[in-house]
Amino acid sequence: MKDLIDKLFREKQLSRDEYISLIKDHSESDAEYLFSLAVKRRMEYYGKDVYVRGLIEFTNYCKNDCYYCGIRRSNRSVERYRLTKDDIMSCCEQGYELGFRTFVLQGGEDPYYTDYKICDLVSSIKNKYPDCAVTLSIGEKEHESYKAYFDAGADRYLLRHETADSGHYARLHPSEMFFDHRIKCLYDLKEIGYQVGCGFMVGSPYQTAENLADDLLFIKELQPQMVGIGPFISQHDTPFAQMNSGTMEQTLFMLGLIRLTLPPVLLPSTTALGTIHPLGREKGILAGANVVMPNLSPVSVRKKYLLYDNKICTGDEAAECKNCLQMRMRSIGYDVVVSRGDSKQT
Ligand code: 5AD
Ligand code: FES
User: Fold this and answer.
1) Among residues 7, 104, 202, 257, which one has the fewest Cβ atoms lying within 10 Å of its Cβ?
2) Is the CB of 160 under 6 A from ligand 1?
3) 2-337 belongs to which CATH class?
4) How do the domains of the chain map onto residue ranges?
C-alpha cells in the first residue's frame, strides 16, 4: 500500500484499480503515511495558511427532493425562510469586519431568486466590496443563467457532483434529476470562466469503493479549483433516515487522496466533518485540507438550514464560528488568513 501512496505522490494519478485497492485495503498506518505526504504536498502550495470562506445560507426553500437532504421539498417539518437583500448585505458587512474576503451565497434551488435578483445581489456585493470574491452555490441552472451571474461579477461556483457514477446518482436522487445535466453544469461553469468547486459525500448510501475511485478520476479530469467533501450524515426526516452515516476515517482518507491527485486544489475541512467528530475539522487540515467555511448566516436562521442531523455552528453569536475556527487552527499550529484565497492552480 505504501508503494501505491508513493506512486500517487510522484505521479499525481493512479489507475482505477489502484485507487480501489487503496480505498478498500489500507491500514491505519497507511492512512497516517498518506496524511504525511498530503500535508507535505499542501505545504508546497499553501504552507500553514488556512483560507476562510464566509458561508451565507440565504434560503432553505428548495424545489428538489434529493433523498439525503434535510431541506428537500417533501420535508414538511422544515420552517422555510428567505433572507432579504438587506439581510444578505448586512451579513457581508459583518463578515467584512471579521476579515472575510470571500462570501459564499448558498441556498436551495429556490425559484423566488430569479436570475435578475441573483445578478443584483452579486453586483451589489461586488460594488461594495471590490476586494472580495463572491461564490455562488445555488444548484443546477442553464448556461445563460450561469453566464449572467458571471457577468454580474460572480467569481466562483460550487456545485457538488455528488457521485461520478450515473447508477449511484440515480439511487440518491429522484428520477426527475439527471446525472448528465449535473455534469454538464460543471463543464458549463468552467467554460464560462468560473473557479469551480465539485465534490461528494463520503459514505453516502449505496456508495462503493469503485464509486469513490470514479470520483477521483472525475476530479482529475474536471480539474476544479475546489473540491468539497464531507461525510454523509443521516437526517431524520428523509428517506435515508435509517442509513448509516459516513465515517471520519473514510473522509480523511479521501481528503488525503484528493490532495495528492490534484495538488493545488482548495480543499475545505467541512462542517459535516466537524459534526461527526469534535476535532474533525482539525484532523481534516492535518490530512491535507486548507480551507474552512465559518457560518456567517444570521443567527435567527441557522437552526433552519439543517441538511443533516446534529449540525454544529448553529449557536447564537454571530462571530462565534470565525473565532472558534481561528482558535482551532491555532491549536494545531495553523493560521487563518485574510485574503481572497485564490487557488494556486494555473
Ligand atoms: N449529509 C451530509 N452532507 C449533505 N449534503 C446534503 N445533505 C447531506 C447530508 N445528509 C451536502 C450535499 C450538498 C451539500 C450542499 O451538502 O453534498 O451538495
Ligand atoms: Fe462554528 Fe465552531 S466553527 S461554532
Assistant:
1) 7
2) yes
3) alpha beta
4) 2-337
Does the pTM surpass 0.90? The reply is: yes
Q: What does the pLDDT look like over 287-301, one tens digit per residue?
A: 999 999 999 999 999
Cell output for 249: 476515517
- Which region holds residue 14: left if phi is over 0, alpha if psi is between -120 and 50, else beta? beta
Name the residue of 159, 162, 308, 313 whose CB sits within 8 Å of the most ligand 1 atoms, as the mutation to test its pocket. 308
Ligand 2 centroid vs 297 CA: distance in angstroms? Answer: 12
Closest ligand 1 atom number to CA of residue 137: 15
Question: Cβ(162) to ligand 1 under 6 A?
Answer: yes
pLDDT of residue 320: 86
What string of DSSP letters covers 68-130? T-TT-TT-TTS---B--HHHHHHHHHHHHHHT--EEEEEE---TTS-HHHHHHHHHHHHHH-T
Q: Rounded to the nearest whole angstrom, what is the distance from the C-alpha of residue 132 to the centroid of ligand 1?
A: 26
- Cell representation of residue 270: 467541512
Whole-number Å distance between alpha carbons of 274 and 233? 11
- pLDDT, residue 342, reads 87
For 251-273, write each residue's pLDDT tens digit.
999 999 999 999 999 999 999 99
- How far is it, in rounded angstroms, from Cα 330 to Cα 171? 41
pLDDT, residue 45, reads: 97
Separation of alpha carbons 114 and 112, rounded Å: 6
CB of residue 248 inside a 6 A radius of ligand 2: no
Q: Does residue 69 line the site of ligand 2, with CB under 6 A?
A: no
